[in-house]
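dumping this here so i dont lose it
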């Protein structure tokens, strides 16, 4: 399977399993727990979108943990795939802050990075950390 193409429901599990590297993991439950962080990030970004409540440190922690077990670029691909497009403007500043976005945007075919706006409030908040 060529993972240079966009992710879909059929390739998602294979993609994440290919990149998943947790030496302390010895059970599928730990993989599932790590992947559940995606929905937590999605929920936290949705809360910011709807209520303007930003839990920046919690979002960063979840992204960092995913980055530790998948790697930065696979983490970015998975998050852009699983998180709705209207929340990408909130996700992108976190990925930039963590230096998780690749140098070449064709490494994340799930989204055209140059077309994703950046929430300036999140940038300001992250600069204060």
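and the seq i came up w/
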């Amino acid at each position: 399977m060529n993972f240079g193409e966009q992710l879909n429901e059929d390739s998602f599990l294979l993609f994440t399993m290919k990149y998943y590297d947790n030496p302390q993991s010895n059970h599928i439950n730990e993989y599932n727990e790590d992947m559940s962080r995606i929905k937590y990030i999605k929920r936290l970004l949705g809360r910011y979108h709807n209520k303007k409540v930003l839990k920046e440190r919690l979002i960063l922690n979840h992204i960092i943990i995913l980055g530790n077990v998948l790697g930065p670029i696979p983490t970015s691909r998975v998050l852009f795939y699983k998180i709705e497009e209207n929340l990408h403007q909130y996700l992108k500043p976190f990925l930039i802050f963590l230096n998780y976005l690749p140098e070449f945007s064709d490494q994340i075919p799930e989204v055209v990075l140059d077309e994703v706006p950046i929430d300036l409030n999140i940038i300001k908040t992250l600069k204060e950390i």
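Residues 9-127 form one domain.
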